[in-house]
């Protein structure tokens, strides 16, 4: 079962030919979640061979162009490809109003429905849920209303050992009870501990996306112990003042959050194009939190399907 | 003096990772004219190292998304780069209305002015003119109002030979008269023919852009003898019926126009993505008009600065 994130765009507002504006795709057991949709996202999806049809949910963190200018092109292309399935877009309410006339003019014959979900920029909120995954939005601090997104696999019940079913002749009712964590009591009164009857299910994995935002420690409980944390690092710490002024984060600040939230791995992106080399980002981040990666367009990061501790 | 066109996007509505939607840049003596602006144009400009600041005029043939979805991103980036100079956009009048709310929302602090020029889709018209170049729009036949564009260098006066100025002691008045094509008469009455006194100036070069359009023979006098003709060829001739239905052109039809207009070179693009290989396009086009090229993103085609015939 896959749990991976692929970077489609890793730059800040001014894209280059190798670093496109913000967009990522999260694959949770072949459910594809598109996070932000900067210009060129549809071409990057083609480049990295991600199947368009698998995307049913798009999450837009905020309405700056480098996070959403690719939407209209992608929506149009999905129409030309004959999509029939609803497309859900989670974004600031203004997006629906802004896109409306463009959809009418450029995508009049769209063969599928777009369903807009308006984000709450004040409270942490569950915005999507299915059998396998829960998605929450949470407020960040930027120049315009901005949300981060937290993707968590659901905790699964332990599996019953096949040999135990035979050995103790377990009924469906017994199995339900054991899955709920109860020991099994044989007819003679002999108690078999639940641990002997079950195999732990794979650990629920998690991913948090935080872009764009000022250094914001109040997100620590939300991102606590996620396997992967993507955090913007527009500047190095030398430009801390500019970072604060423009409501962005430095690499060192992002690493501090990763360390204090005890995350598995930190992915840094959204670099300002004033930097010709990114060496300083990795140096100052790794100094605080060792397991840091500077992402590039096309990178994919997997979280292994390990058993629970 | 340069006269060249660089292909930024060569595909039709569904872009791939190597063929972006329609966009081209025409360089006439370092004046850069952007023709159409599909999604990703700004990244292609970076990739092919074309200086953004040199673009002052953008021509949008028609309002289908694959010809204009890159505009808002480019406009925004030009603002972030600190542009101060007016940007002129020549397009259908609806574009101004459609872009308005997006410019207000996403580009509120734009440090330069955008000046919209509304195209006439009924008549051939001069839409831009300076010392060196004239740009005309002319109607094509597509599912929505569509214009082609004709770029022509202005005819230059012949240059006076330096040795003639000394030999005949020519005055400014004499020079003006000779440049107008008059012979020079010496004081004694001896007549020196204008041909002996002048060097022909370089030939005025020309480029015509025709996309998207149904096969349309009435453009023949407009594109007559242009050095370079870019013409859409969405389909091969096998799908002639579909081409007509969707108001597109086949490769053979485009080649027929090139032959009958006696153009220098034919550039074909805007290929439907139903074709995995483009061999048939070149075969059927070359059969009618030999000097045909199937363009790729990144190709540049130069017209040499030859003297007039």
Low-confidence stretches of chain A: none
Give the CATH H-level superfamily of the largest domain in chain A.
Ribonuclease Z/Hydroxyacylglutathione hydrolase-like
Q: In percent terms, what proportion of residues of chain A is strand?
A: 25-35%
The main β sheet of chain A shows up as: 7 strands, mixed
Structural class of chain A: alpha/beta
Which pair has the most extensive contact? A-B, 32 and 32 residues
The SSE order of chain A reads EEEHEHEHEEEEEHHEEHEEHEHHEHEE
CATH topology of the largest domain in chain A: Metallo-beta-lactamase, Chain A
Task: Determine and state the CATH class of the largest domain in chain A.
Answer: Alpha Beta
Overall pLDDT confidence of chain A = 95
Question: N-to-C terminal Cα separation of chain A, in Å?
Answer: 18 Å
How many domains comprise the coordinates of chain A?
2
Apparent shape of chain A: globular
Percent range of helical residues of chain A: 25-40%
Rg of chain A to the nearest angstrom? Answer: 22 Å
How many beta-strand runs of chain A?
18
**How do the strands of the widest beta sheet of chain A line up side by side?**
6-5-4-3-2-1-18
Task: Provide the CATH architecture of the largest domain in chain A.
Answer: 4-Layer Sandwich
Written overview of the protein:
The structure is a homodimer of 309-residue chains. By secondary structure, chain A is α/β, with parallel strands linked by helices. Chain A has two domains: 3-156 and 201-302, Ribonuclease Z/Hydroxyacylglutathione hydrolase-like (Metallo-beta-lactamase, Chain A, 4-Layer Sandwich); 159-198, no CATH class. The first copy, chain A, has helices spanning 41-47, 71-80, 93-106, 162-167, 172-179, 194-197, 220-223, 240-245, 251-260, 279-288; strands spanning 3-9, 23-28, 31-37, 55-59, 87-91, 114-118, 125-129, 133-139, 147-153, 159-160, 184-185, 191-192, 198-199, 206-210, 228-232, 265-269, 292-294, 300-302. A seven-stranded mixed β-sheet of chain A has the order 6-5-4-3-2-1-18. A seven-stranded mixed β-sheet of chain A has the order 7-8-9-14-15-16-17, with helices on one face. In chain A, helix 10 links the parallel strand 16 (265-269) and strand 17 (292-294). Chain A binds chain B through residues 13-17, 20-21, 39-40, 42-44, 46-47, 63-65, 69-70, 72-73, 76-77, 80-81, 94, 98, 101-102, 105-107, and chain B through 13-17, 20-21, 39-40, 42-44, 46-47, 63-65, 69-70, 72-73, 76-77, 80-81, 94, 98, 101-102, 105-107.
